[in-house]
Every structure is written in structure tokens, then in C-alpha cells.
Amino acid sequence: MTIEFSQPGKVVFSMIDCIERLIADTPEELLKGTATSPAANHLFQVNEMSKKLETSSAVIYHHLTAHLLYLGKWTRPNLLLAVSFLCTRVQLPDEDDWKKLGRFLRDTKNDKLTLQADNNKPVQWWIDASFAVHPNMRSHNGATMSLGKSCPISISSKQKINTRSSTKAELVGVNDAMYLVLWVRHFLEDQGYSIKDNIV
Distance between CA atoms of 15 and 71, rounded to whole angstroms? Predict the structure, then answer.
């Protein structure tokens, strides 16, 4: 990981070398074409008729998904939605899952994460849930936190329970992220910052 402090008031994180190694390990068939988003419209659709991957390909799929998860957590939060779903498929991946890897990362390998804070802004959280998008009808959470000019914390995860409406899915999403909302507030206060507002 490269950490740059060359711009006043900003810190820039990148893992370009790691991404280049990952692209080199990716089979050529997964890199054909282009992708404008890490998560295509059909991301959550599972084709039950699709052929299961052979053991060697399944191992490569698991390896690539683990690398993408590592990248998403450290410097590429824009990958988290796609990767969190792909992680649910590592036990029995199929050819359709196989095609969901690869191209976007190649096309955006030079993207970096820039963090910058604004002392005049409150801590703000955006938490959302997509209702019943997984094959087992569970919903999916997404949350991100801003200190004014960037988002140092982002999460994307499958809900652990089924809900009966989109409203309940939203409530579960807020509940699932609340530990981070509270932890960040306590952490910043322990560093000596006065937190007037912690907005969800």
C-alpha cells in the first residue's frame, strides 16, 4: 500500500501494485470488454441452470474474490457491493459468477482513495438497504460515513435475517451499522474532538 501526504490536509491511499498482480492472475476471458461499474444490474441474480465451476477454476475464483475483498476494505470501497455478493458464492461458484469478476478493476486500476476532513462539518452517516435482493430473499445493507469531504468508513453486507417489508429491511440496516456509528463517535471523542452532531 502507498500512502501519500504530498497535498496539505489530505492523505491518499493506493494499491496499484497489488491490483496489477491481481490482473496478471486473472484469466484472460474475464478481462474481455469493458465495465463502467463494479456491480452490473444482474449482480444479485443467480442462474440455477448455470454450470458449476471445476475445482481448479473454483480455487481461482476464491483467490480473486479474497483479493478483491482485501482491496475493497483498504483502498477501493467502490468494490464492496460486488465483492460482498461474490463472497456469498465462493462455496459453489458457477460460470455466471465467474463472469462477474475482473474488467472494472482493470479499467480503474489507477483510482486512489483520498481522505480529507472538515472540522466544521458534523459526522454524517448514510445507511440504506435493498429489500430481498439475495436468492434466499434476504436484504443487503450499505453504509458510509463522512467527515465532510471524504468517506473513511464504508460497509456492504448481506442481512442475517429475512424481513417482510422494505421498511423493516431499512431498520435492520440501521441496526446492523449502529455499532460503527457509536464506535466512531466514542473514538473521535477519545482523541479529543468534540462531536456535536452524529447524524444518520
Answer: 8
Report the pLDDT averaged over residues 163-170: 96
Lowest-pLDDT range of 24-28, 37-41, 105-109, 192-196: 37-41
Report how far apart, in Å, the C-alpha atoms of 14 and of each of 24, 27, 73, 110, 152 are.
18, 23, 12, 8, 14
User: DSSP for 91-108?
Assistant: SS-BHHHHTTSSHHHHHT
| Mean of the per-residue pLDDT values of the chain | 88
Catalogue the long-range contacts made by 91-94 (C-beta closer than 8 Å, 24 or more residues apart): 92/52, 93/52, 93/53, 93/57, 93/58, 93/61, 93/62, 94/46, 94/47, 94/50, 94/51, 94/52, 94/53
- Per the CB < 8 A criterion, the answer to whether 125 and 143 are in contact is yes
Helix and strand totals (H; E) in the chain? 6, 7
Determine the Cα–Cα distance for residues 159 and 143; give it in Å rounded to an integer: 13
Q: How confident is the model at residue 4, as a pLDDT?
A: 94
Q: Are 134 and 88 in contact (CB under 8 A)?
A: yes
Q: Are 82 and 99 in contact (CB under 8 A)?
A: no
